[in-house]
């Protein structure tokens, strides 16, 4: 049987269907052997059939590079959340991406020129854009100065999509939009004297949460957390997050870290704080400074900032477990695996109640959270372009590099690791020569972003290509 190839260009986005295409079925049969097709029947939950339950799952669907808004790196894969009419596709954004998010309808990206672009999740067709490029300004691209200070043209708020809605900024104004059409549902300027919105917002059924930050040049400049009614955009409450910002190095120090079960976790001067997302009431505080915050159903995993040991070597601190809401330490710390003396502590990229996924010394480690033992060790592929941080998707840890998608079972009984070449992946490339004038973000080598929903992975590469494939 011949295979047809259809290519369509729409607004700079190329969508291609070729011999790797599948019908989005359960992964069984001949299609399971094609690149980009599902290789394991049953690895994606079928989901409910009750209309109310289906509607609820779609309304809750939303991911970014770190998974869902709880920061745990765990994304349940349910066929109900697969984009309607999806088939594997390849596309290209109009510019290099800074950060991306997806729901069942759209993939929305902040680009390194300070504008936004959204493409349809089912086929990669461009849907809408926001912002204009200042071609006469001094800064037309995001970059780091030689001293390490970050500059961003246009808008810099990382997008967040969920359930058919997307939060972005437009000329500094916070906006909630329809993720598929780009229609503005409401907008909100930062409260007077509070500066500009920074970093990434979070949203659920009831609230949109965002951090505003004043310029460090202002006396007593501070960062503050703001909550808005998701339906109307009405400002609900605010909380100051820390000590005055007095230097460029303290820009973007305070962030909203996670949202789960009606509780928002944010940085503050002492460490980490938990607030009721609806009322702003302070629920708990921790003196632990957390490099990463991963919230599960029963605990908050806090990976501490590295400690400096003798001779400047990086010591290996414990990974603390905190209680949700109150943020008191609970139980025993999660042990790190044995590593070479003086090595940097591993990063915890995903944590469920049963497993933790760590990255250390070029390896992906799967740890049993009950015993603390490492049950899987897989070496990451070598290359100049760094791979993405692994996520827990169903019963596997999944990550991508510039050539392929990788799936690692979470226990010893799950078979071997799988490497699946990704159609349209750009491949490895050499790093650009270093410049004394700083680093332009769009020219640096950055890991892909894996946006996984419904057994589908939209893989956004650092130069703007997108490949949408079924999970291996």
From TrEMBL:
InterPro entries hit by this protein: PQQ_rpt_dom (IPR002372), Quinoprotein_ADH-like_sf (IPR011047), WD40/YVTN_repeat-like_dom_sf (IPR015943)
Gene3D superfamilies according to UniProt: YVTN repeat-like/Quinoprotein amine dehydrogenase
Segments of this protein annotated with the region Disordered: 24-49, 415-440
Residue ranges crossing the lipid bilayer per the database entry: none
Span of domain Pyrrolo-quinoline quinone repeat: 117-285
Listed Pfam families: PQQ_2 (PF13360)
Superkingdom assignment: Bacteria
PANTHER family: CELL SURFACE PROTEIN, OUTER MEMBRANE PROTEIN ASSEMBLY FACTOR BAMB
Protein name listed in UniProt: Pyrrolo-quinoline quinone repeat domain-containing protein
Organism, scientific name: Streptomyces aurantiacus JA 4570
Lineage: Bacteria, Bacillati, Actinomycetota, Actinomycetes, Kitasatosporales
């Amino acid at each position: 049987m011949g295979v047809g190839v259809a290519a369509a260009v729409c607004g700079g986005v190329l969508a291609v269907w070729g011999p790797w295409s599948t019908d989005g079925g359960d992964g069984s049969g001949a299609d399971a052997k094609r690149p980009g097709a599902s290789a394991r029947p049953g690895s994606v939950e079928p989901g409910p059939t009750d209309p109310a339950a289906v509607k609820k799952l779609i309304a809750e669907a939303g991911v970014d590079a770190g998974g869902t808004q709880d920061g745990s790196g765990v994304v349940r894969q349910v066929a109900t959340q697969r984009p309607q009419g999806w088939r594997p596709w390849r596309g290209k954004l109009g510019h290099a991406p800074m950060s991306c998010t997806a729901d069942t309808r759209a993939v929305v990206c902040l680009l390194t020129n300070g504008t936004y672009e959204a493409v349809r999740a089912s086929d990669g067709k461009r849907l809408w854009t926001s912002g204009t490029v200042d071609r006469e300004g001094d800064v037309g691209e995001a970059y780091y100065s030689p001293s390490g200070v970050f500059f961003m043209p246009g808008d810099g708020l990382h997008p967040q999509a969920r359930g058919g809605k997307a939060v972005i900024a437009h000329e500094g104004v916070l906006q909630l939009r329809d993720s598929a059409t780009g229609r503005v549902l409401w907008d909100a300027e930062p409260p007077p004297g509070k500066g500009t919105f920074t970093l990434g917002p979070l949203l659920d059924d009831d609230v949109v949460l965002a951090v505003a930050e004043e310029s460090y040049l202002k006396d007593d400049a501070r960062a503050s957390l703001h909550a808005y009614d998701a339906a109307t955009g009405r400002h609900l409450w605010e909380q100051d997050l820390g000590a005055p910002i007095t230097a460029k190095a303290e820009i973007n120090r305070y962030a909203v870290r996670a949202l789960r079960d009606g509780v928002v976790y944010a940085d503050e001067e002492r460490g980490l704080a938990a607030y009721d997302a609806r009322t702003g009431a302070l629920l708990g505080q921790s003196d632990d400074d957390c490099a990463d915050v991963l919230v599960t159903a029963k605990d908050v995993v806090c990976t501490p900032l590295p400690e400096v040991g003798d001779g400047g070597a990086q010591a290996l601190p414990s990974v603390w477990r905190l209680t949700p809401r109150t943020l008191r330490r609970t139980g025993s710390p999660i042990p790190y695996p044995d590593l070479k003396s003086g090595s940097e502590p591993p990063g915890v990229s995903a944590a469920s109640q049963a497993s933790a996924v760590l990255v250390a010394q070029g390896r992906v480690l799967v740890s049993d959270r009950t015993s603390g033992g490492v049950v899987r060790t897989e070496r990451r592929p070598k290359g100049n372009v760094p791979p993405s941080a692994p996520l827990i998707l169903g019963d596997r840890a999944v990550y991508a590099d510039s050539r392929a998608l990788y799936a690692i079972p979470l226990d010893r009984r799950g078979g071997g690791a799988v490497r699946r070449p990704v159609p349209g992946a750009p491949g490895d490339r050499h790093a650009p020569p270093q410049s004394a004038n700083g680093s332009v973000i769009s020219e640096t080598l950055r890991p892909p972003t894996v946006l996984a929903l419904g057994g589908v992975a939209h893989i956004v590469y650092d130069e703007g290509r997108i490949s949408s494939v079924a999970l291996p």
